[in-house]
UniProtKB/TrEMBL annotation:
Protein name: Nickel import system permease protein NikB
Domain ABC transmembrane type-1: 95-296
Keyword Lipoprotein: no
Spans through the membrane: 12-30, 101-122, 134-157, 169-189, 227-253, 273-292
Transport found in the keyword field: yes
Subcellular location per the Swiss-Prot or TrEMBL entry: Cell membrane
Any single GO CC term annotated in Swiss-Prot or TrEMBL for this entry: plasma membrane
UniProt-recorded Gene Ontology molecular function terms: nickel cation transmembrane transporter activity
Pfam families in alphabetical order: BPD_transp_1 (PF00528), BPD_transp_1_N (PF19300)
């Protein structure tokens, strides 16, 4: 296990370097000059050139990139052009909000998805099965921003159960978590159903039924446990995607998370903040996938991590 973890960590190094290079090159193609945006429209050309020199934007691209990588290795993600604060400090302010939102969203995804998938699989071809799969298809198809607006309309404006926007209490979490978790739950439900149907056709399940083992024990103790490996993969990917893909939901509910910060940084051409944020999100995504791979061994002892 230790060798596997070390090998996976080493494999992340070229991945993160590749991510930083791609983001750096893409940001260079975005129209606009960060120095002009920062100096303001009334600044003279001399002031803009001086600011560009201070920011190192007058250097060749390869020098800018290698200077950035050198600083990252030393733990310095740079300084935000917009706020003149360390990028790491900016990220650490917003990251906990996005992680909390992603966590509760994935809780909704797992609880609703597993429950719906198991019920659908155990009642195959019944009205319940068809209804759940239709609901799952609708859940996958609904845009998150539309669902969020509908939840606000009914549960915040009409019934006044939850706050319209903001962050800080559990009541603020409920609607955004439902908005993000619903589409993920639909995917998990479909995957759980498919995996469960494959498992319950196995010989050992038929043997357990022949011995008179209770149906609930067979489903949740034997079948579900052995059907979890592909489901865990989907959940891990969903959680990783939530870390960097919550911008629409954060905008709808006025949540100051990492997604909104990245969009604002792109608009302002704040290259250090964009690069640092995406690098952190990529590292977290890799960490989540590592945890998912390790969890396979705890779910199924037969899985070979090597």
């Amino acid at each position: 296990m230790f060798i596997f973890i070390v090998r996976r960590v080493l494999q992340t190094i070229p991945v993160l370097i590749g991510v930083s290079l791609v983001v750096f090159l893409i940001m260079q193609m975005v129209p606009g000059d960060p120095a002009v945006l920062l100096a303001g429209e009334s600044a003279t050309e001399e002031q803009v050139n001086q600011l560009r020199s201070q920011l190192g934007l007058d250097q060749p691209l390869y020098i800018q990139y290698f200077d950035y990588i050198k600083n990252v290795i030393q733990g310095d993600l740079g300084t935000s052009i917009r706020s003149n604060r360390p990028v790491l400090d900016e990220i650490l302010v917003r990251l906990p909000v996005t992680i909390e939102l992603a966590f509760w969203s994935i809780v909704v995804t797992v609880v609703l998805g597993l429950l719906a998938g198991v019920i659908s699989a155990t009642k195959q071809r019944s009205l319940t099965d068809v209804s759940i799969m239709v609901a799952a298809l609708i859940g996958v198809s609904l845009p998150n921003f539309w669902l969020g607006l509908m939840l606000i309309l009914y549960f915040s404006v009409q019934f006044q159960i939850f706050p319209v926007s903001g962050w800080g209490t559990f009541a603020h979490i409920v609607l955004p978590a439902l908005t993000l978790g619903t589409s993920g739950a639909a995917i998990v439900a479909r995957m759980t159903r498919s995996s469960m149907l494959e498992v319950i056709r196995q010989d050992y399940i038929r043997t357990a039924k022949a011995k008179g083992v209770k149906q609930r024990y067979i489903v949740y103790k034997h079948a579900l446990k052995n059907a979890l490996v592909p489901v865990i993969t989907v959940v891990g990917l969903q959680f990783g995607a939530l870390l960097g893909g919550t911008v629409l939901t954060e905008s709808v509910f006025a949540i100051n998370g990492l997604g909104r910060m990245i969009v604002d940084a792109i608009r302002m051409r704040d290259l250090p903040l964009v690069q640092g944020s995406i690098l952190v999100v990529s590292a977290l995504f890799v960490l989540v996938n590592l945890i998912v791979d390790i969890s396979y061994k705890f779910v199924d002892k037969k899985v070979d991590l090597n």
